[in-house]
Amino acid sequence: MKDPQTGPDPIRLHIAAERLPRDGLEIRYEANAAERAALARHLEIVEVSELRADLTASRWRGEGVRVKGRLRAVVVQESVVTLDPLRQSIDEPFETSFVPEGSRLAPVLQTGENEIHVDPEGEDPPETFRGPQIDVGPFLVEALSLALDPYPRESGASFEAIDTDPDPKAGVRSAFDVLTNLVPANRKDGEGT
């Protein structure tokens, strides 16, 4: 999940998948100023004032890891109507499961296809990871981006009505009308030709 314009993922939050306590690992994450600034650039918003995650990572189905908890943030976006800065508080549940690459629980591509078939009523398929650590950071970024208001605006603000189908005859001059302005007023037809 790298954006060539904003560089590497703005948040990194590594969990040692093989060293989870039996009762789960409590994780309290708070983004520092540099991470928040990088995140705002990545999301193309004015500012990320706060970003916190209170998570629990625990074993899942023997070889997997489930990370769940809450994501809280305060962001500033531009109003789509006035372009004024608007603050928005976000408080979203967060839950994602991970399995090692090659796991029997990993989503399987169908033969001859490049798509994974997902049951819309079922649980989300787990994400795969390689090595001893899981980076939860990109998934927090994704959760925050999905929680942003796609069209932020002030309460009661709206666009002015615009006539998208004006009467073509009203107030429109033809190209020939414009050409008549090029002929001097004191000139008579036939002169100077």
Which descriptors apply to this entry?
193 residues; 3 helices; disordered N terminus; 5-stranded mixed beta sheet
Element layout with pairings:
Blueprint: E1 14-16, E2 25-30, H1 33-43, E3 47-60, E4 64-78, E5 85-100, E6 127-129, E7 133-135, H2 137-147, H3 175-180
Parallel strand pairs: 5-6
Antiparallel strand pairs: 1-7, 2-3, 3-4, 4-5
Structure description:
- The protein has 193 residues and is α+β, with helices and mostly antiparallel strands.
- The protein has 3 helices and 7 strands.
- It has a 5-stranded mixed β-sheet with strand order 2-3-4-5-6, with helices on one face. The chain has a two-stranded antiparallel ribbon with strand order 1-7.
- The chain is elongated.
Strand order of the largest sheet: 2-3-4-5-6
Uncertain residue segments: 1-6
Envelope shape? elongated
What is the helical fraction, as a range of percent? 10-25%
The total strand number stands at 7
Radius of gyration: 28 Å
SSE topology string: EEHEEEEEHH
User: With helices defined by DSSP (H or I, 4 residues minimum), what is the helix count?
Assistant: 3
Oligomeric form: single chain
**How much strand?**
25-35%
Reported for the largest beta sheet, the result is: 5 strands, mixed
Q: What is the residue-averaged pLDDT?
A: 82
Structural class designation: alpha+beta
